[in-house]
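Archive entry. Fields below.
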Amino acid sequence: MIKAGIIGATGYTGAELVRLLELHPEIETIFLDSRSYEGIRFSDIYPNLRGKVHDTCQSINVDSVPEDTDIIFSALPHRISQSKVLPLIEKGFRVIDFSADFRLREAKIYEHWYETKHLDDRTLEKAVYGLPEWYTASIAKAGLVANPGCFPTSILLPLLPLLKENLIKNKDIIIDSKTGVSGAGRSSSEVNIFSQVNENIKAYNIGKHRHTPEIEQELSLAAGSSVNILFTPHLIPVDRGILSTIVMSAEGITRKDIEACYEAYYGKKSFIRILKEGYLPETKAVKGSNFCDIGFVIDSRSGKLVVVSAIDNLLKGSSSQAVQNMNVMFGLEETAGLNAAPIWP
Amino acid sequence: MIKAGIIGATGYTGAELVRLLELHPEIETIFLDSRSYEGIRFSDIYPNLRGKVHDTCQSINVDSVPEDTDIIFSALPHRISQSKVLPLIEKGFRVIDFSADFRLREAKIYEHWYETKHLDDRTLEKAVYGLPEWYTASIAKAGLVANPGCFPTSILLPLLPLLKENLIKNKDIIIDSKTGVSGAGRSSSEVNIFSQVNENIKAYNIGKHRHTPEIEQELSLAAGSSVNILFTPHLIPVDRGILSTIVMSAEGITRKDIEACYEAYYGKKSFIRILKEGYLPETKAVKGSNFCDIGFVIDSRSGKLVVVSAIDNLLKGSSSQAVQNMNVMFGLEETAGLNAAPIWP
Amino acid sequence: MIKAGIIGATGYTGAELVRLLELHPEIETIFLDSRSYEGIRFSDIYPNLRGKVHDTCQSINVDSVPEDTDIIFSALPHRISQSKVLPLIEKGFRVIDFSADFRLREAKIYEHWYETKHLDDRTLEKAVYGLPEWYTASIAKAGLVANPGCFPTSILLPLLPLLKENLIKNKDIIIDSKTGVSGAGRSSSEVNIFSQVNENIKAYNIGKHRHTPEIEQELSLAAGSSVNILFTPHLIPVDRGILSTIVMSAEGITRKDIEACYEAYYGKKSFIRILKEGYLPETKAVKGSNFCDIGFVIDSRSGKLVVVSAIDNLLKGSSSQAVQNMNVMFGLEETAGLNAAPIWP
Amino acid sequence: MIKAGIIGATGYTGAELVRLLELHPEIETIFLDSRSYEGIRFSDIYPNLRGKVHDTCQSINVDSVPEDTDIIFSALPHRISQSKVLPLIEKGFRVIDFSADFRLREAKIYEHWYETKHLDDRTLEKAVYGLPEWYTASIAKAGLVANPGCFPTSILLPLLPLLKENLIKNKDIIIDSKTGVSGAGRSSSEVNIFSQVNENIKAYNIGKHRHTPEIEQELSLAAGSSVNILFTPHLIPVDRGILSTIVMSAEGITRKDIEACYEAYYGKKSFIRILKEGYLPETKAVKGSNFCDIGFVIDSRSGKLVVVSAIDNLLKGSSSQAVQNMNVMFGLEETAGLNAAPIWP
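PREDICTED_STRUCTURE:
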């Protein structure tokens, strides 16, 4: 059994990871770290896990991590995460980090968007961006995997093949994403009070969302040239789910071109479902799973290609993607522990 | 007192109209027509109106409409509406029609998008498009007002001044709209079952929504040239509200330009609220009212202008806009009966 | 015009009061007090009121209250409210208090349930319990009105006539109430985070909710003997609304008895709607209004009477009830400013 | 591998069963019957199952059922189900029926409450009521299992041990249940339109719900005397979940008594979680699982015992309970295929 530990286990992504690892046939979870809930039974915080998870939260530091730990997940927020993760890497532990701290290849860009210092920019070179459909080989041997952001996952998976194959241009890519409220986490603030967000639809952080540089970095690498996007996130009153509606020029491409491109890249991937003509993704169809659904329409009237993707923001957008990364790192079946189909309704 | 009658009163827009007219100081509602609910008390269908509305539904036809009726609202679906409205106009009644039957100036375009014959295309010339912020003078003397669609209202109000003043170009306008479920009406179908749409986000009818030609017609008139849009509607699990996120090139324009433009067109309008810098519309802030909130951001990184608008789809998107039209038609205060502020939360 | 001021205006009940007073034909609001939002425009906190309410929050104390203020509403939480309200009463201002601080006639009971000292128990004798359907005469001349709790309002209105007329017994009254999340207010805590309460149904504070003694006090006064209840509140993922399902023995009573009793007490009341046989209250039918809907069933199989009531917790359960109280205090029409019908859907 | 077929597979409970059987390590699903969707891919109806379930719906009758079918599930509505199930039993197939057609031991009671004839009342004697925590032995050898109703499951599991052990009396049991909307199924009617039930709380069918006789039958069997209840169901705007709040006299019992009773009956059961003091069930904690959570409070003020239970209405209230029954019937681990923990949030 592979021995796993989780730092910052009591947020929503941490808790989903705990649930997934409990189901996983090859994993034994050996510690759940939490500063604020030290000494509290995990299932007293997450009552869904009663009778399933018997651990009590511990406050762990680099010296108290058991030496035989095979993999450490950090589900801490950015800035705090690097301060915890750097000493662990130093000591030789393999780490999957959920925060933004190791996703951007240039410290400058990180520091600009996140308005904080990076503590060790040399790690940025070694960190592997954990999108397993794209970086399988590097992830397999990585010591530090930077688990992608939720919006980026929903945007990169549909766009990367199209840019890689030069089917679309590197400009005028308009991205309108909608996310459920769990993306704001479990700490209380006016932003996620039920009565403020329920029965409400709104846009926020237009052009300024911190996931923007991460999206542009990966799109640019695929395109081989600088890609610049407009990214508008919206908050929707559902627990989970991201739907991204991405518009770009359809000049010179046909439905067949795109179908062939997706088939080539994703035809054999377990978690990407390309929808046939006439069908479009919806978040309910992926909720609770590691799937990313992708559908598209070419609108000849306007000359635009519209690609729509749907993921569960806490799973393919975070925790189950981390488990998929771990499966790749340890040579397991990529789907191990991730077989559950979404529930409906 | 002005005497009003409603044909097709028992759908959501009809019922909202009944509620608004009951509040209106200058209106007496003299009949509520419904074929399917004939003989049923209106407040047995809409329990919110118990003690407020005492009428019973009648099945009315052109011959049984009281001669002293001053204004007739038709809240019937397209196709059925024209067959009822045409004889009423013939007889000289003034009519506000909620359907799409008289919105498009060309019968051909109507017939293409709605896949049905128009029964009398000569009426299309006489019908006035009922966007009261734009067509006040014509509405005032109109015999037939075509009340705008909900999506078009949310899109035209922010875009018309910008096109009219040539601040933006007539192409590459990308519109991503989100609507609450009441837009699908009160008749039951799998599309509006709670369990199918709750906890779900999805796009539908990409590039094919029937409101497209209506939007393009009015934008083109304002621009003085043919405007072509991409319109993607989404379904969101809230009762009410439309949020439209509209992206276009920001080339050559500044925040000040747009603020000045909106101030010139809407500074004195009662129902348009232009938000100051740093604020963005949200549907909850307009729910239950005739307001249209508009905010915008210029993203210098991508060179795009993002305009966001919010309306209540059943009110400014339908029934209260109809009352506003009626106020204009009868020389009343434009705000008469429409003073209620939205409730929060 | 009557001059009104609001202390603690920025919570949900305060904001609803601001909205209602703006609509009220005989009221001028002269100050909106808030410590935490001093200097902030009220409509920047509550965007629904943009263009409607132009005031900026001030931090007011007893010495800065304008002398010509006719009525002061305190929408502060219990304990803090009495410390602000007592000096105002001392100075001769008429006050309507939204908190629990003046609802209970015995300081001991207050101190037991609210676990805090009462600062001046002599005021408890003078305070009038502000249920306008029951205490009209005393409210009319009151200097201090204790506005009822939301659950108590939904429970007292249906039960008081039945107990007053001895139609039901004073024991084995089982009350199961369900409330929307706005009852938890606008301050953020894990209790009202969207993701914790959405898609969830739960009971809380069984037998321990602080509204219990207030309910029992008023029921006992009506019955002329001590009434003891079991009260179980539940949290439901809606913005607004309380539905109370109240079960008691139906021994010796018929549907006619209850109908006659309600007709006698409420037949002429503007805001109580007694539903006819075959209909039951639902919260959506009262949302946004001052109505209390009451319906009932006698189940002969079990020998029980089930009475169901519905109110909007922020309105008849708080702010609009306060306006109704003010109307009574100043000899206005009881319905002044409260005419809006609920919206549907 | 055990060969299973499903009749009436396209409703919500049918679809959940399809999902569960796909996950089950020992089951092979050999047919999915549907009259209305014949020839349609199942995953085109339930997009959550894309890539997981590849079957196409067939219209199956008694003669076309493959002879080597080991178990047939009927997820048809009552009345229709018996007409399909009776010939299958006749032919010797083992059947688990989801409808009410075989739950009541007396045809008369069935006919009274369901207002339809029973086609073969001799089967009622042979049918086993499929509450696996109570009838394990009979289920193991049953030819026909009547899968319990959703409300009954949530009510029987907490009450049966208390009645069996005479801890509580057989009268004055007041049950207030709240259900999510998926209980109304997937066929569209005004009852389950989003806009009618969202942001709404209501009671329905007070004292008349068809699950009443089923609850009383099983409670009476446990008590050894006739038990009569008052059952009030409520509709709550969530996808899934039933919370039942059950009130009865606490005379002569202590917390310890009840804890000991539950420990004796359920201490070793996999799917019943008894909550410790200070904790209460919530539907979100069981959603997506086969768990039934039970908590309770003794309120000494009123002398009442309040027991609260939570289940997922489509799972423990239907489809996963059916799988649990099947596991018992075929001597498999009771938990086979049912290991998934609920997701949160």
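CURATOR_NOTE: Chain A has two domains: 2-147+318-329, 151-311.
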